[in-house]
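Researcher: I'm preparing a figure for a lab meeting and need a structural model of a single chain. I don't have an experimental structure, so a prediction will have to do for now. The sequence is pasted below. Please return the structure as tokens so I can convert it later.
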Amino acid sequence: MKKTYANWSFVFYLVIFFIVLISGCASKKQPTLDSATYASGAPLYIIGPGDSVNIFVWGNRELSSSVPVRPDGRITTPLVEDVVASGKTPTQLARDMEKELARYIKNPVVTVTVTGFTGRYSEQIRVIGAAAKAQSLPYKEHLTLLDVMITVGGLAEIAAGNKATIVRVVDGEQRQYNVRLDDLIQEGDITANVDMLPGDVLIIPEAWF
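Model: Understood. Here is the structure written out token by token.
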């Protein structure tokens, strides 16, 4: 009788152990990122190497120009050389250009417009894994997961779309969120469409079978 009781006690504690283990694994499950639980404000565009910028100086057409941002992140315009552009918003660059031009003309007013978009490497969206064309994309305002998938040509045949994840830095901490690409692309479930943020990495795994 004591042996039977001991056996049942062992089975009971074994069941409790597995329940705790399963609960612990479930608590570590990555949250699902979807349109119902996430909404982002539009971040300001940050200029990066490879961008093209139009520098317009009001009342001074000869000082206005369209120039590329060099690999070192700087630009050169008439009268002004080697101004750092990378890492700044267009407005910040305009104010810096006004300070530089103030040495030559009185009260310059400058407007900066980005005409060719590449963005800083840290701001680009990266798609890796089982996409038709895995690649890096420049971030654009209101860019969504569906926009990204259209650009990369959709999923590869071997993709496990509903197991895809987005790696994102939030408050200085790297976090990972599940996204439902199969539901979005194959089922047309628009609730699976989400906003992308600068620096997001979309990882699409392969199906096991």
